[in-house]
Amino acid sequence: MTGRTRGRLVSRALRVIVVTALLLWVLLPFYFLLLVALTSKADSLATPPRWIPAMDFGSFEKIFDSLFSSAPASSPSDLIIPGIQNSAVVAFFVALLNIVIGSMGGYAFARFRFPGSRVVPGLLLGTQLVPVFALVVPFYVILRSVNLTDSNAGIVIAHLSFTVPFSVWMMRSFFKGIPIEVDRAAMIDGCTRWQVFYRVVLPLARPGLISVGLFSFMVSWNDFLFALVLNSRTDAMLIQPAISGLYNVREQSFGIMAAGTLLAALPTMLLALISQRFLVRGLTSGVGKV
Amino acid sequence: MTVSGIELKQVSKRFGESLIVDSIDLTIEDGSFTVLLGPSGCGKTTTLNMISGLEEPSGGKILFDGEEVQDLAPHKRDVAMVFQSYALYPNRTVEDNIAFALKLRKTPAAEIRERVDEAAEMLGITPLLRRRPRQLSGGQQQRVALARAIVRRPNVFLLDEPLSNLDAKLRADMRISLRELQKKLKGTFVYVTHDQGEAMSMADQVVVMNGGLVQQDARPLDLYRRPANRFVAGFVGTPSMNFITGGLGGDGSFTRDGLSIPVGWSRPARENVTLGVRPEDVTLTPAAEGAPGRVRMVERLGVEAIVVAAFPFGDVVARTGPDVDLDGDAPVTMEIGKGKAHLFDSGDGAAIALGDAMTGGRNG
Predict the structure, then answer these.
(1) Does B87 touch chain A (CB under 8 A)?
(2) Between A and B, how many CB-CB pairs are < 8 A?
(3) What is the interface pTM, i.e. ipTM, of the complex?
(4) Does residue A275 share a domain with residue A141?
(5) What sign has the CA pseudo-torsion B62, B66, B71, B75?
(6) CA-CA distances (angstroms) from residue A104 to A15, A165, A219?
(7) B23 to chain A, minimum CA–CA distance in Å?
(8) B185 in contact with A at a CB cutoff of 8 Å?
(9) pLDDT for B217
(10) Do A132 and A38 lie in a common domain?
């Protein structure tokens, strides 16, 4: 064996070790969640831990029970499914509105010159420096005065306030990457300004739209603070506060906590997996050399 | 009076503080091939964009067949345009790129197919219809951009440096194809370029622009033979015209540094004139030691040779036959062909007298 091939082997082995360590780092907590979620209450705290899941679906059953009973929520585990439903509606509209407002605002900043068209994009990014904590109380006061606390609409508005600036800024960068001649060619071909936007430019910015939608969906889904403060009534509760509720009850059930946490993580994980394919395809089939 | 074609009346364009196009007047005849020629930043592309409607004039009127269009959006003007970067829609196939304008006009599908096929046929891109722009070479993209323009059968075609991204061989071929296409379509072509060779070879009418002003609007040969000013004289022709500043004596000769070149121009004597003479109108003759000129370089190009000689008033470039009998450092005298010298005002550059108004002369 020459020194060179040995060196190559060593570097490959190192790479495998590093990647494996990273994978464990990321996946082990999830595996633990899965283990605990699928273990009966008695076994869940056993030492040493059982590494093979017991396939006890009791915790999941308890969580899904609330789907089939019309009785009002009696325990925190009954809030998981409604929480997921509420969060799904909120995150969906937050993502949708981010795509709509982000693309239209981004296009305007990328293509038109008007007072503030140069300064405002910087300010948009600057808003991301404001800690969201600072906004919680003002939002509570404002939304309560218009009766929008404990409502999905109110929380959508709150989430938009700190996602839209970034989305506009991000879409602006995307549109700037599309040569302006494409817009001009479309206008010459017979498009109105509006047709240029939605028939020509928007399809080219699809990777950007997906990124913006994904980003804002995740921010909204994962928000805890606004969800906790603005929507405290049980029927309006979102998923993150609902999960945290599981950790606060007297009769602690690690199985239900773990199952609920997994359910809460599932949508964003699936979304990331699905859209990753679109993102990559979108990027490669994108503008390229025009 | 209604003029068939395009008219620009006192058209200006201002971007912030800077005046890009300075109240120009221009008439482009229906069915002509007109080239807007000038260095970068001269306002030619801005002028084209104002004709297309992509830019709004800051002042003045634009008329198509006598009707004012300066306030109309591009899609209401029925012009087609080919861009320097081609600007194809990267996510659409070649076929969809060409058909897009027709689809926007809700043309029946059968007719769209027929017209796309016809346009593709005309430009020889039928085998490429299913491909996407990034799978095409520059020349092919160029043809797709042209097909996209002609498929609509507009009356006016605007071309913004369409050949500048192609290699030299392809560019030469495309000049011919473009001219043939224009004859076949009988459309009005307005073509922007900074390449005077393209302008001279294709145009019916050349509009030379500089500093936002029209310097001269003439047929190619008139431009070459009778330049309106020093800028046009220097911009058109390669190698460019020789310029020598000096004075005009009362005896009809041009003087500079004690040298006298008879130009046959008998008008009152004046200072501050510039003599212009094209390289092919200069003859450099070998002379005895002590002659005013000295050869600096001889470029033998095969079909011709370019000789650069240093004179007390500056370098002079001469174009001669390929078998020139001159070598570096050889002493030479200069001769200007009869009726070939041009005189320009050294101040504003305006032509005072053009070649055919003068007789030739000899120096040394």
Answers:
(1) yes
(2) 70
(3) 0.82
(4) yes
(5) negative
(6) 44, 12, 21
(7) 24
(8) no
(9) 95
(10) no
